[in-house]
Amino acid sequence: MKKVFKFPDVGEGIAEGEIVQWLVSVGDVVKEDQPLVEVETDKAVVSLPSPYSGKVISLNGQPGEIILVGADLVTVEIEPASSSVTTPNPEAPPKKEKKKDAGSVVGVLETSEKEFVLPIHQKASQKRSEGEVRAIPSVRMRAKALGIDLHALVGSGPDGRITREDVEKAAGRTSPVDSTTTSVLGPVERIPFRGVRRSAAKRVSESTQKVAAVTFVDDADITKLERVRLNKKGLAEDRGFNLTYLPFIIKSVVAGLKAYPFINATLDEAREEVVLKKYYNIGIAIDTPEGLMVFVLKDVDQKSILDLAQEISALTEKAFSRTIALSELKGGSFTLTNYGVIGGIYGTPIINYPEVGILGLGKIEDQAVVREGEIVIRKILPLSLTFDHRVIYGSEAARFMNTVIEHLEDPDLMLIEGK
Predict the structure, then answer these.
(1) C-beta neighbour count of 407 within 10 angstroms
(2) What is 137-187's CATH superfamily?
(3) Which CATH architecture has domain 2-80+110-125?
(4) Cβ neighbours of residue 81 under 8 Å, at least 6 residues apart?
(5) How confident is residue 131, by pLDDT bands cut at 50, 70 and 90?
(6) What is the DSSP letter of 339?
(7) What number is the average pLDDT over the span 329-334?
(8) Cα angle 16-17-18, degrees, rounded to a multiple of 5
(9) What does the alpha-carbon distance between residue 309 and residue 381 come to, in Å, rounded to a whole number?
(10) In terms of CB atoms within 10 Å, which end of the chain has fewer, N or C?
Protein backbone atom coordinates (compact mmCIF):
# COMPACT_ATOMS: atom_id res chain seq x y z
CA MET A 1 0.00 0.00 0.00
CA LYS A 2 1.41 3.38 -1.03
CA LYS A 3 1.39 6.41 1.26
CA VAL A 4 2.37 9.91 0.13
CA PHE A 5 4.03 12.26 2.60
CA LYS A 6 3.25 15.85 1.66
CA PHE A 7 5.19 18.93 2.69
CA PRO A 8 3.40 19.96 5.92
CA ASP A 9 2.73 23.41 7.31
CA VAL A 10 5.80 23.84 9.53
CA GLY A 11 5.04 27.28 10.88
CA GLU A 12 2.82 30.35 10.89
CA GLY A 13 2.59 31.95 7.46
CA ILE A 14 4.98 29.49 5.77
CA ALA A 15 3.78 28.67 2.26
CA GLU A 16 6.93 27.20 0.69
CA GLY A 17 10.38 25.84 1.43
CA GLU A 18 13.63 24.91 -0.27
CA ILE A 19 14.98 21.36 -0.25
CA VAL A 20 18.43 21.42 1.36
CA GLN A 21 19.30 17.73 1.20
CA TRP A 22 17.68 14.31 1.15
CA LEU A 23 18.54 12.10 4.10
CA VAL A 24 17.23 8.91 2.42
CA SER A 25 17.35 7.37 -1.07
CA VAL A 26 14.88 5.47 -3.23
CA GLY A 27 14.84 1.87 -2.05
CA ASP A 28 15.71 2.65 1.56
CA VAL A 29 13.58 1.10 4.28
CA VAL A 30 12.60 3.79 6.78
CA LYS A 31 10.95 3.72 10.16
CA GLU A 32 8.28 6.04 11.50
CA ASP A 33 9.80 9.35 12.75
CA GLN A 34 13.04 8.76 10.84
CA PRO A 35 14.28 12.05 9.26
CA LEU A 36 13.66 12.10 5.50
CA VAL A 37 14.73 15.52 4.26
CA GLU A 38 16.07 18.88 5.41
CA VAL A 39 14.05 21.86 4.21
CA GLU A 40 14.82 25.56 4.59
CA THR A 41 11.64 27.47 5.34
CA ASP A 42 11.56 31.19 5.99
CA LYS A 43 14.79 31.53 8.02
CA ALA A 44 15.23 28.12 9.63
CA VAL A 45 16.32 24.68 8.47
CA VAL A 46 14.07 21.89 9.71
CA SER A 47 14.33 18.12 9.46
CA LEU A 48 11.08 16.45 8.37
CA PRO A 49 10.46 12.96 9.81
CA SER A 50 8.50 10.20 8.15
CA PRO A 51 4.97 9.58 9.42
CA TYR A 52 5.15 6.02 8.04
CA SER A 53 7.32 2.90 8.18
CA GLY A 54 8.10 1.22 4.89
CA LYS A 55 10.16 1.36 1.69
CA VAL A 56 10.87 4.64 -0.11
CA ILE A 57 9.72 4.31 -3.72
CA SER A 58 10.02 7.93 -4.88
CA LEU A 59 11.49 11.29 -3.86
CA ASN A 60 9.97 14.42 -5.33
CA GLY A 61 12.27 17.41 -5.82
CA GLN A 62 15.99 18.12 -6.02
CA PRO A 63 18.23 20.01 -3.57
CA GLY A 64 17.80 23.72 -4.20
CA GLU A 65 14.25 23.29 -5.52
CA ILE A 66 11.36 25.31 -4.06
CA ILE A 67 8.32 23.29 -2.94
CA LEU A 68 4.91 24.47 -1.78
CA VAL A 69 3.10 23.42 1.37
CA GLY A 70 0.89 20.46 0.43
CA ALA A 71 3.16 19.27 -2.41
CA ASP A 72 4.18 15.58 -2.58
CA LEU A 73 7.56 14.93 -0.97
CA VAL A 74 8.05 11.19 -0.46
CA THR A 75 6.08 8.11 -1.48
CA VAL A 76 6.44 5.13 0.87
CA GLU A 77 5.31 1.54 0.31
CA ILE A 78 4.05 0.40 3.70
CA GLU A 79 3.58 -3.16 4.91
CA PRO A 80 0.01 -4.46 4.68
CA ALA A 81 -1.91 -4.74 7.93
CA SER A 82 -1.83 -8.01 9.82
CA SER A 83 -4.07 -10.64 8.26
CA SER A 84 -5.15 -12.05 11.62
CA VAL A 85 -8.86 -11.71 12.25
CA THR A 86 -10.23 -10.61 15.58
CA THR A 87 -13.77 -11.11 16.71
CA PRO A 88 -15.47 -7.81 17.36
CA ASN A 89 -16.85 -7.20 20.82
CA PRO A 90 -20.60 -6.65 20.45
CA GLU A 91 -20.70 -4.61 23.68
CA ALA A 92 -17.90 -2.24 22.61
CA PRO A 93 -19.11 1.23 21.61
CA PRO A 94 -18.92 1.95 17.90
CA LYS A 95 -15.87 3.91 16.79
CA LYS A 96 -16.52 7.47 15.78
CA GLU A 97 -15.91 8.08 12.13
CA LYS A 98 -13.08 10.57 11.56
CA LYS A 99 -14.01 13.61 9.58
CA LYS A 100 -12.31 13.68 6.23
CA ASP A 101 -10.19 16.73 5.41
CA ALA A 102 -12.21 18.93 3.10
CA GLY A 103 -9.07 20.42 1.65
CA SER A 104 -7.54 23.86 1.54
CA VAL A 105 -5.70 26.14 -0.80
CA VAL A 106 -2.88 23.60 -1.01
CA GLY A 107 -5.09 20.57 -1.55
CA VAL A 108 -6.16 17.66 0.63
CA LEU A 109 -3.56 16.27 2.99
CA GLU A 110 -3.37 12.65 4.05
CA THR A 111 -5.13 11.86 7.33
CA SER A 112 -3.85 9.41 9.88
CA GLU A 113 -5.14 7.77 13.03
CA LYS A 114 -2.04 9.08 14.74
CA GLU A 115 -1.68 12.84 14.93
CA PHE A 116 1.46 14.01 13.14
CA VAL A 117 3.51 16.56 15.08
CA LEU A 118 6.57 18.05 13.43
CA PRO A 119 9.47 18.06 15.92
CA ILE A 120 10.92 21.43 14.97
CA HIS A 121 13.53 21.26 17.73
CA GLN A 122 14.64 17.76 16.83
CA LYS A 123 17.57 18.76 14.67
CA ALA A 124 18.99 21.12 17.24
CA SER A 125 18.96 18.52 19.99
CA GLN A 126 20.33 15.59 18.01
CA LYS A 127 24.05 15.00 17.83
CA ARG A 128 25.28 15.36 14.28
CA SER A 129 26.51 12.19 12.67
CA GLU A 130 30.16 11.97 11.75
CA GLY A 131 30.80 13.02 8.17
CA GLU A 132 27.61 15.05 7.85
CA VAL A 133 28.02 17.98 5.47
CA ARG A 134 26.82 21.41 6.59
CA ALA A 135 26.26 23.79 3.69
CA ILE A 136 23.37 25.86 2.38
CA PRO A 137 21.78 24.94 -0.98
CA SER A 138 23.57 27.63 -3.04
CA VAL A 139 26.93 26.39 -1.75
CA ARG A 140 26.01 22.78 -2.58
CA MET A 141 25.00 23.80 -6.09
CA ARG A 142 28.24 25.71 -6.55
CA ALA A 143 30.28 22.74 -5.35
CA LYS A 144 28.45 20.46 -7.78
CA ALA A 145 29.10 22.86 -10.66
CA LEU A 146 32.82 22.95 -9.83
CA GLY A 147 33.07 19.21 -9.18
CA ILE A 148 34.03 19.64 -5.51
CA ASP A 149 33.31 16.88 -2.98
CA LEU A 150 31.92 18.67 0.08
CA HIS A 151 32.77 15.69 2.29
CA ALA A 152 36.46 16.40 1.67
CA LEU A 153 36.25 20.01 2.92
CA VAL A 154 36.61 21.47 6.40
CA GLY A 155 34.14 24.31 6.82
CA SER A 156 35.36 27.69 8.03
CA GLY A 157 31.85 28.95 8.89
CA PRO A 158 30.00 28.79 12.23
CA ASP A 159 29.72 25.27 13.69
CA GLY A 160 31.86 23.92 10.82
CA ARG A 161 29.53 25.13 8.06
CA ILE A 162 31.09 25.04 4.58
CA THR A 163 30.99 28.47 2.96
CA ARG A 164 31.08 29.53 -0.67
CA GLU A 165 34.65 30.77 -0.11
CA ASP A 166 35.67 27.28 1.07
CA VAL A 167 34.36 25.80 -2.17
CA GLU A 168 36.02 28.44 -4.35
CA LYS A 169 39.33 27.92 -2.55
CA ALA A 170 39.11 24.15 -3.02
CA ALA A 171 38.57 24.73 -6.73
CA GLY A 172 41.74 26.83 -6.88
CA ARG A 173 39.91 30.10 -7.38
CA THR A 174 40.95 33.29 -5.65
CA SER A 175 37.78 35.07 -6.70
CA PRO A 176 34.19 33.84 -6.57
CA VAL A 177 33.58 35.24 -10.08
CA ASP A 178 32.94 32.50 -12.62
CA SER A 179 34.87 33.58 -15.73
CA THR A 180 32.95 31.10 -17.88
CA THR A 181 29.78 33.19 -17.40
CA THR A 182 30.03 36.49 -19.24
CA SER A 183 27.92 39.45 -20.23
CA VAL A 184 28.64 42.09 -22.88
CA LEU A 185 30.45 44.08 -20.17
CA GLY A 186 32.51 41.29 -18.65
CA PRO A 187 32.44 38.33 -16.25
CA VAL A 188 29.39 37.89 -14.04
CA GLU A 189 28.11 35.31 -11.60
CA ARG A 190 24.49 34.27 -11.09
CA ILE A 191 23.54 33.13 -7.59
CA PRO A 192 20.09 31.71 -6.79
CA PHE A 193 18.06 34.28 -4.82
CA ARG A 194 16.91 31.90 -2.12
CA GLY A 195 16.81 31.27 1.60
CA VAL A 196 17.38 34.08 4.08
CA ARG A 197 18.10 36.78 1.50
CA ARG A 198 14.93 35.99 -0.43
CA SER A 199 12.84 35.97 2.75
CA ALA A 200 14.32 39.27 3.95
CA ALA A 201 13.72 40.86 0.54
CA LYS A 202 10.03 39.99 0.69
CA ARG A 203 9.69 41.46 4.17
CA VAL A 204 11.40 44.78 3.41
CA SER A 205 9.48 45.15 0.14
CA GLU A 206 6.20 44.63 1.98
CA SER A 207 7.20 47.14 4.63
CA THR A 208 8.19 49.90 2.20
CA GLN A 209 4.96 49.46 0.25
CA LYS A 210 2.59 49.54 3.24
CA VAL A 211 4.21 51.79 5.87
CA ALA A 212 4.44 55.60 6.05
CA ALA A 213 7.94 55.55 7.52
CA VAL A 214 9.57 58.47 9.34
CA THR A 215 12.93 58.34 11.16
CA PHE A 216 13.79 60.31 14.32
CA VAL A 217 17.37 60.40 15.71
CA ASP A 218 18.88 61.30 19.08
CA ASP A 219 21.79 60.40 21.38
CA ALA A 220 22.00 58.73 24.78
CA ASP A 221 24.83 59.35 27.25
CA ILE A 222 25.53 55.85 28.59
CA THR A 223 28.59 56.67 30.68
CA LYS A 224 26.89 55.61 33.93
CA LEU A 225 25.42 52.55 32.25
CA GLU A 226 28.90 51.48 31.15
CA ARG A 227 30.07 51.48 34.77
CA VAL A 228 27.07 49.38 35.83
CA ARG A 229 27.64 46.93 32.98
CA LEU A 230 31.30 46.47 33.86
CA ASN A 231 30.39 46.03 37.53
CA LYS A 232 27.93 43.22 36.71
CA LYS A 233 29.98 41.68 33.91
CA GLY A 234 31.51 39.08 36.21
CA LEU A 235 28.07 37.72 37.19
CA ALA A 236 27.34 36.92 33.55
CA GLU A 237 30.77 35.42 32.89
CA ASP A 238 30.33 33.12 35.89
CA ARG A 239 27.19 31.79 34.16
CA GLY A 240 28.94 31.33 30.82
CA PHE A 241 27.78 34.30 28.74
CA ASN A 242 28.65 37.94 28.07
CA LEU A 243 26.82 40.98 29.41
CA THR A 244 26.49 43.44 26.52
CA TYR A 245 24.60 46.72 26.32
CA LEU A 246 21.67 45.05 24.58
CA PRO A 247 19.75 43.76 27.66
CA PHE A 248 19.87 47.25 29.20
CA ILE A 249 18.62 48.79 25.95
CA ILE A 250 15.78 46.26 25.82
CA LYS A 251 14.68 47.16 29.35
CA SER A 252 14.78 50.86 28.44
CA VAL A 253 12.71 50.20 25.31
CA VAL A 254 10.10 48.29 27.30
CA ALA A 255 9.74 51.28 29.64
CA GLY A 256 9.07 53.43 26.58
CA LEU A 257 6.59 50.97 25.10
CA LYS A 258 4.64 50.85 28.35
CA ALA A 259 4.50 54.65 28.49
CA TYR A 260 3.50 54.96 24.82
CA PRO A 261 1.52 51.81 23.88
CA PHE A 262 0.78 52.88 20.30
CA ILE A 263 4.41 52.09 19.47
CA ASN A 264 3.87 48.48 20.63
CA ALA A 265 1.06 47.89 18.17
CA THR A 266 -0.07 46.83 14.72
CA LEU A 267 -2.60 48.36 12.35
CA ASP A 268 -5.53 46.17 11.29
CA GLU A 269 -6.46 47.96 8.08
CA ALA A 270 -9.33 45.60 7.22
CA ARG A 271 -11.14 46.33 10.49
CA GLU A 272 -9.78 49.88 10.80
CA GLU A 273 -8.40 49.19 14.28
CA VAL A 274 -5.10 49.77 16.03
CA VAL A 275 -4.18 46.59 17.93
CA LEU A 276 -2.28 47.50 21.10
CA LYS A 277 -0.07 44.63 22.27
CA LYS A 278 -0.21 43.95 26.00
CA TYR A 279 2.87 41.76 25.74
CA TYR A 280 6.46 42.79 25.06
CA ASN A 281 8.25 40.52 22.58
CA ILE A 282 11.38 42.20 21.27
CA GLY A 283 12.90 41.14 17.95
CA ILE A 284 16.69 41.35 17.58
CA ALA A 285 18.03 41.71 14.03
CA ILE A 286 21.43 40.08 13.60
CA ASP A 287 23.80 39.64 10.67
CA THR A 288 24.58 35.98 10.00
CA PRO A 289 26.69 34.41 7.23
CA GLU A 290 23.46 33.49 5.42
CA GLY A 291 21.90 36.96 5.80
CA LEU A 292 19.75 39.01 8.15
CA MET A 293 17.72 37.17 10.79
CA VAL A 294 15.39 38.49 13.48
CA PHE A 295 14.95 36.27 16.53
CA VAL A 296 12.37 37.18 19.17
CA LEU A 297 12.80 37.43 22.93
CA LYS A 298 9.41 36.69 24.49
CA ASP A 299 7.92 38.49 27.52
CA VAL A 300 11.05 40.57 28.15
CA ASP A 301 9.29 42.63 30.80
CA GLN A 302 9.16 39.51 32.97
CA LYS A 303 12.91 38.79 32.71
CA SER A 304 15.96 40.23 34.43
CA ILE A 305 18.93 41.85 32.70
CA LEU A 306 20.99 38.69 33.19
CA ASP A 307 18.14 36.46 31.97
CA LEU A 308 17.97 38.48 28.78
CA ALA A 309 21.75 38.40 28.30
CA GLN A 310 21.78 34.61 28.58
CA GLU A 311 18.85 34.20 26.17
CA ILE A 312 20.41 36.57 23.63
CA SER A 313 23.64 34.56 23.73
CA ALA A 314 21.80 31.25 23.23
CA LEU A 315 19.58 32.47 20.38
CA THR A 316 22.49 34.16 18.59
CA GLU A 317 24.42 30.89 18.62
CA LYS A 318 21.39 29.01 17.28
CA ALA A 319 20.85 31.60 14.53
CA PHE A 320 24.47 31.29 13.37
CA SER A 321 24.37 27.48 13.42
CA ARG A 322 20.95 27.43 11.67
CA THR A 323 19.39 25.34 14.45
CA ILE A 324 16.96 28.06 15.52
CA ALA A 325 13.28 27.08 15.63
CA LEU A 326 10.61 28.89 13.62
CA SER A 327 8.78 29.75 16.85
CA GLU A 328 11.87 31.71 17.93
CA LEU A 329 11.59 33.88 14.81
CA LYS A 330 7.91 34.75 15.24
CA GLY A 331 5.68 36.85 17.47
CA GLY A 332 7.63 40.09 17.84
CA SER A 333 5.94 43.36 18.80
CA PHE A 334 8.93 45.73 18.37
CA THR A 335 12.40 45.26 16.85
CA LEU A 336 15.97 46.42 17.56
CA THR A 337 18.72 46.43 14.95
CA ASN A 338 22.33 46.98 16.02
CA TYR A 339 24.30 48.13 12.98
CA GLY A 340 26.74 49.94 15.29
CA VAL A 341 28.69 46.73 15.89
CA ILE A 342 29.68 46.81 12.22
CA GLY A 343 30.12 50.57 11.99
CA GLY A 344 27.83 53.51 11.44
CA ILE A 345 26.25 56.18 13.55
CA TYR A 346 22.70 56.89 12.36
CA GLY A 347 20.45 55.06 9.91
CA THR A 348 16.94 54.72 8.59
CA PRO A 349 16.07 51.13 9.58
CA ILE A 350 13.13 49.49 7.80
CA ILE A 351 10.21 48.54 10.01
CA ASN A 352 9.67 44.82 10.55
CA TYR A 353 6.09 44.85 9.20
CA PRO A 354 3.39 44.54 10.55
CA GLU A 355 5.06 46.16 13.57
CA VAL A 356 4.95 49.97 13.63
CA GLY A 357 8.41 50.80 15.00
CA ILE A 358 12.06 49.78 14.96
CA LEU A 359 15.02 51.22 16.88
CA GLY A 360 18.45 51.33 15.26
CA LEU A 361 21.56 51.32 17.48
CA GLY A 362 24.65 53.14 16.21
CA LYS A 363 28.33 52.84 17.09
CA ILE A 364 29.10 53.68 20.71
CA GLU A 365 31.95 56.20 20.91
CA ASP A 366 33.70 58.43 23.41
CA GLN A 367 32.82 62.03 22.52
CA ALA A 368 33.67 65.47 23.84
CA VAL A 369 30.42 67.06 25.06
CA VAL A 370 29.46 70.06 27.18
CA ARG A 371 28.11 69.31 30.66
CA GLU A 372 27.36 72.20 33.03
CA GLY A 373 29.53 74.53 31.00
CA GLU A 374 32.53 72.20 30.85
CA ILE A 375 33.86 70.00 28.08
CA VAL A 376 33.99 66.36 29.24
CA ILE A 377 34.42 62.96 27.61
CA ARG A 378 31.25 60.87 27.65
CA LYS A 379 30.25 57.53 26.11
CA ILE A 380 27.53 58.25 23.53
CA LEU A 381 25.04 55.83 21.92
CA PRO A 382 23.36 57.11 18.71
CA LEU A 383 19.71 56.05 18.30
CA SER A 384 17.53 56.03 15.17
CA LEU A 385 13.81 55.35 15.56
CA THR A 386 11.77 54.58 12.43
CA PHE A 387 8.02 54.64 13.03
CA ASP A 388 4.80 54.28 11.04
CA HIS A 389 3.34 57.77 10.84
CA ARG A 390 -0.12 56.32 10.14
CA VAL A 391 -0.25 55.09 13.74
CA ILE A 392 2.30 57.17 15.65
CA TYR A 393 2.54 60.97 15.79
CA GLY A 394 5.97 62.59 15.67
CA SER A 395 5.52 64.06 19.16
CA GLU A 396 4.69 60.61 20.53
CA ALA A 397 7.79 59.13 18.89
CA ALA A 398 9.94 61.89 20.40
CA ARG A 399 8.53 61.32 23.88
CA PHE A 400 9.07 57.57 23.52
CA MET A 401 12.70 58.23 22.62
CA ASN A 402 13.04 60.56 25.61
CA THR A 403 11.81 57.79 27.93
CA VAL A 404 14.26 55.29 26.45
CA ILE A 405 17.14 57.75 26.83
CA GLU A 406 16.10 58.61 30.39
CA HIS A 407 16.40 54.97 31.40
CA LEU A 408 19.69 54.47 29.55
CA GLU A 409 21.20 57.50 31.26
CA ASP A 410 19.93 56.53 34.72
CA PRO A 411 20.62 52.81 35.26
CA ASP A 412 19.04 53.00 38.72
CA LEU A 413 15.68 52.96 36.91
CA MET A 414 16.47 49.43 35.72
CA LEU A 415 16.77 46.42 37.99
CA ILE A 416 19.75 44.16 37.45
CA GLU A 417 18.50 41.01 39.12
CA GLY A 418 14.80 41.77 39.32
CA LYS A 419 12.09 41.70 36.73
Answers:
(1) 22
(2) E3-binding domain (4.10.320.10)
(3) Beta Barrel (2.40)
(4) none
(5) low
(6) G
(7) 94
(8) 140
(9) 19
(10) N
pLDDT given at position 94: 53
Global pTM value: 0.69
Question: What long-range pairs does 233-238 form, CB within 8 A, spacing at least 24?
Answer: 235/306, 236/306, 236/309, 236/310
Catalytic: which of 121, 151, 389, 407? 389
Catalytic-residue membership of 121: no
The pLDDT, as a whole number, for residue 321 is 82
Whether 97 shows a pLDDT value over 50: the answer reads no
- Average pLDDT value for residue range 354-359: 97
- Phi-psi category of 90—alpha, beta or left, where left has phi over 0 and alpha has psi -120 to 50? alpha
Task: Choose which CATH entry (3.40.1190.20, 1.10.1740.10, 3.30.559.10, 3.40.30.10) describes domain 200-413.
Answer: 3.30.559.10
**Which part of the chain is CATH 2.40.50.100?**
2-80+110-125
Which of 132 and 342 is assigned the larger pLDDT?
342
CA angle 127, 133, 138 (to 5 degrees): 130
